[in-house]
């Protein structure tokens, strides 16, 4: 009887470990895997950045504090998809787990604009079809044009339009439907041009910036955005190394800036909020 009780207890523990996401097993895996952090290799040191942008840190009586190395979270996905010519292509894509946008090129660190809104809104694959058609058409089309392109019955098209309007992804101006983004840039191929090696660094939780999105959320977004012939072959969390450099102004107020360690350029904030 005692052995039965032990067996039941072990089964109970096993049940706790076998979860879908965010539970005991993923927590244990996270601990084991994150003794080291996998990061893109830095090309610039903080000293080089301070020297290259010396005027930004010392102009008008300013002075800089000691730079701090930080790691911004990203999801690297190996994917497979079909090109417009019907050919299968394999590539890698890099998505930010902070702002939900996709990196297009690791040299320039150019990113998409619009995926964050679709992520927050929970855009579906069918809604992405509508959004991508509008994006290809410079942002707007008439309802008749949409119906010819999507080949949907009027009732189904109206339901789709109302859904994207409700999610604040489109707006309607009379008979015209338009994207509800300023300078949208998300109708892209699922491909990031990666020019940097991945290296491992000792894990220091104090240096790791927080996630705003989970890998599962990003995976769902990618599957919805890139169509039925898109599939994810593997995923891995990686980091962007950056330097937090604080500047003390003459009035003793502190300006916090972040600098990309791959290209030595600042991460320009949006409305005063840093985008990693």
What portion of residues belong to β-strands? Answer: 25-35%
Radius of gyration: 23 Å
Low-confidence runs of at least 5 consecutive residues: 6-28
How many angstroms does the end-to-end distance come to? 57 Å
Structural class: alpha+beta
Secondary structure tally, helices: 9
**Which whole number gives the mean pLDDT?**
88
How many structural domains are formed by the residues? Answer: 2
Largest sheet: 7 strands, antiparallel
Oligomer: single chain
Return the string of H and E elements.
Answer: HHEHHEEEEEHHEHHEEEHEE
Number of strands: 12
Portion of residues in helices? 25-40%
Form type: globular
What this model shows, in words?
With 276 residues, the chain is an alpha+beta fold. The protein has two domains: 37-111 and 195-276, no CATH class; 113-187, Arc Repressor Mutant, subunit A (Orthogonal Bundle), CATH 1.10.10.10. The chain contains nine helices and twelve strands. The strands form three sheets. Strands 2, 3, 4, 5, 6, 11 and 12 form a seven-stranded antiparallel sheet that branches. Strands 7-9-8 form a three-stranded antiparallel sheet. A hairpin with a 5-residue loop joins β4 (88-96) and β5. The longest helix has 16 residues, at 2-17.
């Amino acid at each position: 009887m005692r052995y039965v009780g032990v067996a039941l207890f072990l089964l109970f523990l096993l049940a706790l470990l076998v979860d879908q996401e965010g539970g005991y097993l993923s927590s244990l895996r996270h601990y084991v895997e994150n003794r080291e952090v996998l990061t893109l290799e830095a090309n610039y040191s903080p000293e080089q950045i301070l020297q290259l942008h010396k005027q930004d840190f010392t102009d008008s009586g300013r002075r800089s504090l000691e730079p701090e190395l930080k790691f911004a979270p990203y999801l690297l996905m190996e994917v497979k998809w079909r090109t417009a010519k019907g050919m299968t292509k394999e590539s890698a894509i890099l998505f930010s787990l902070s702002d939900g946008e996709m990196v297009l090129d690791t040299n320039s660190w150019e990113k998409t604009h619009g995926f964050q809104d679709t992520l927050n809104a929970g855009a579906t694959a069918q809604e992405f079809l509508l959004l991508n058609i509008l994006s290809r058409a410079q942002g707007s089309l008439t309802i008749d044009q949409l119906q010819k392109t999507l080949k949907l019955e009027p009732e189904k098209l109206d339901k789709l339009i109302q859904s994207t309007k409700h999610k604040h992804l489109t707006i309607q101006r009379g008979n015209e439907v338009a994207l509800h983004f300023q300078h949208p840039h998300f109708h892209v191929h699922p491909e990031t041009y990666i020019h940097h090696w991945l290296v491992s660094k000792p894990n220091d939780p104090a240096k790791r910036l927080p996630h705003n999105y989970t890998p599962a959320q990003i995976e769902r977004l990618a599957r919805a955005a890139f169509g039925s012939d898109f599939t994810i072959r593997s995923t891995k969390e990686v980091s962007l190394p950056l330097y937090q450099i604080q500047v003390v102004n003459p009035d003793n107020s502190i300006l916090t800036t972040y600098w990309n360690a791959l290209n030595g350029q600042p991460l320009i904030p949006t409305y005063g909020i840093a985008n990693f």
